[in-house]
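wait is this the right file?? whatever heres the structure
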């Protein structure tokens, strides 16, 4: 493709194309979307987030969404791009999206683990971690979703760099998690909702993964999550389960979702998109559209509830 009008949202794109897409979408909608530098990856690629915001005098609450913290979960970056284009194409004519955008700012990081994502295109489709070097270059990659500063490496994570869930050499040891942590921390008074998109499993996960204890607003998180799962199912009949990570998946420490909740962000969710294991990480491109359509319903449902609570 050359112009944004022919960019396909129903295909997976290599990183260079996603970089170009970010430039083109900000050029197409000047004044509502801007591109911002967040930090550098381990292999010195720039990380950018898109800020979607309608100009207004007052200081708005923020929704954070990141995709692609795990390299092989390609449907997640595809959804972040879908989400951005849906908001931008529809905020003028769709009253529901218009209302959200008048009252909230969206910060979207389309690919968090860029080095890993590139590696899945060039070398190993099933790579999960980042690409940082350990043990004198004998093993590679940290699980960025075990590297946040919350109960770091206490449970459901490994200190062995050969493992898939290697937690890194210390809390926030990786440049990618540093970039996200320090930015989110700096905006935490304004961020009311933190969404981190993964695949697969068809789950909406609430805090916590590191304990079976419940966060102070657990009931509300479950209620909002269950309503989102119902909205999702209405679109194409896909079933999602809702619950805390430790309850319905497995225990994990150092996840971004738990960290975000524990620094005081009230609504914090991990989405595990399609499918249920038939294709797993290798979700065919023919399912991108339906997956994004139904996920959009779930996310909008969450955002409506967040808006109702904070407007
Ligand atoms: O507590 O947030 C959590 C766990 C979320 C994911 C994780 O980081 O392990 C769950 C897995 C993921 O998306 O990375 C699930 C997939 C299927 C996997 O690789 O096991
Ligand atoms: Zn994941």
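ok assuming it is, sequence goes like this
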């Amino acid at each position: 493709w050359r112009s944004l009008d022919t960019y396909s949202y129903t295909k997976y794109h290599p990183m260079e194309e996603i970089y170009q897409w970010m430039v083109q979408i900000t050029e197409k909608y000047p004044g509502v979307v801007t591109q911002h530098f967040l930090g550098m990856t381990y292999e010195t690629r720039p990380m950018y987030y898109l800020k979607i915001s309608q100009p207004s005098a007052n200081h708005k609450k923020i929704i954070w969404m990141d995709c692609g913290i795990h390299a092989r979960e390609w449907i997640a970056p595809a959804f972040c791009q879908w989400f951005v284009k849906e908001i931008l194409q529809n905020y003028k004519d769709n009253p529901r999206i218009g209302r959200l955008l008048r009252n909230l700012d969206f910060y979207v990081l389309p690919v968090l683990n860029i080095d890993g994502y590139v590696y899945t295109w060039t070398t190993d489709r099933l790579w999960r971690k980042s690409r940082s070097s350990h043990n004198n270059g004998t093993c590679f990659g940290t699980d960025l979703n075990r590297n946040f500063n919350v109960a770091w490496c206490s449970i459901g994570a490994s200190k062995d760099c050969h493992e898939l869930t290697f937690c890194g050499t210390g809390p926030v040891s990786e440049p990618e998690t540093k970039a996200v942590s320090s930015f989110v921390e700096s905006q935490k008074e304004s961020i009311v909702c933190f969404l981190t998109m993964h695949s697969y499993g068809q789950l909406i996960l609430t805090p916590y993964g590191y304990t079976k204890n419940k966060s102070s607003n657990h009931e509300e998180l479950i209620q909002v999550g269950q309503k989102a799962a119902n909205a999702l199912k209405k679109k194409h009949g896909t079933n999602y389960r809702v619950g805390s990570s430790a309850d319905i998946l497995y225990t994990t420490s150092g996840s971004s979702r738990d960290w975000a909740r524990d620094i005081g962000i009230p609504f914090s969710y991990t989405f595990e998109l399609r499918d249920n294991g038939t294709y797993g990480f290798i979700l065919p491109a023919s399912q991108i559209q339906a997956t994004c359509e139904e996920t959009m319903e779930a996310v909008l449902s969450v955002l409506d509830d967040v808006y109702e609570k904070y407007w």
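The longest strand covers residues 191-199. so i think its the right one actually
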